Amino acid sequence: MAYFRITLMRSGIGMPKKVQGVLHALGLKKRMTTVYYPVSQSIAGQIMRIKELVDVKEVEHMRTKEEMRAARRPDKGYYIEKRSEQMEL
Amino acid sequence: MFGPFRLTNPLSGGLLWKVPWRLSRHQKYRQRERLRGVDTIVSTVDSALARLGQSLKKVEMWKKEMPTEQEMLPKDKYTVFDRKVKRYRKGIHSKCALLLRVGEWGSRSSRGIGEEAISVCA
């Protein structure tokens, strides 16, 4: 199933009420917020209203907030070769 | 010599802080990028819906009537209409344009009329 990945690139401040309402309805409350919605006509119509403010990609899978955070996290820079033996009490 | 309090003509004089009448090539480049971004979004939405066998009237109208970034005239790309200005056009970068929200980016289309629409009108 395909999804729209919508990211708010430009703020809705100063935009007409209808545009701000669409942003709110899609859950885009701050810049750089990313939301996923299944591809449908109603979502496409909403995107057309805010097309100057957002970045839209069609993706195969949806990502949760935690998954997006984990993808942003940089590499640790080390790996554990072997765990030290645990003390047995 | 350097830093925020350096002595330059705009800072010491006051009246020299003027907005040039034309956009720099970097401003023009960024404007073209913005316009192209809208074009890609419309094509993304269109192809995603086409894969489901659907279409949207709004998208169809946009494709029919609105010129893409390449098709747009420089006049439509870099200037906006203003009834108070001599010859009715001013640059998208001018301070008054920002303050008065003339042609606030995205709030209304400043793409001009596509060639097809002109042929329909004629």
From TrEMBL, chain A:
Alphabetic keyword roster: Mitochondrion, Ribonucleoprotein, Ribosomal protein
Annotated signal sequence range: none
Gene Ontology CC annotations of this record: large ribosomal subunit; mitochondrion
Compartments where found: Mitochondrion
Mitochondrion among keywords: yes
Protein function: Component of the mitochondrial ribosome (mitoribosome), a dedicated translation machinery responsible for the synthesis of mitochondrial genome-encoded proteins, including at least some of the essential transmembrane subunits of the mitochondrial respiratory chain. The mitoribosomes are attached to the mitochondrial inner membrane and translation products are cotranslationally integrated into the membrane.
NCBIfam families cross-referenced by the UniProt entry: rpmD_bact (TIGR01308)
Protein name: Large ribosomal subunit protein uL30m
Organism, as annotated: Didymosphaeria variabile
UniProtKB/TrEMBL annotation, chain B:
GO MF entry, a single one: structural constituent of ribosome
Taxonomy, superkingdom: Eukaryota
GO (cellular component) term, any one: mitochondrial large ribosomal subunit
One Pfam family here: L31
Record InterPro entries: Ribosomal_mL60
Name this polypeptide is given: 54S ribosomal protein L31, mitochondrial
Organism: Didymosphaeria variabile
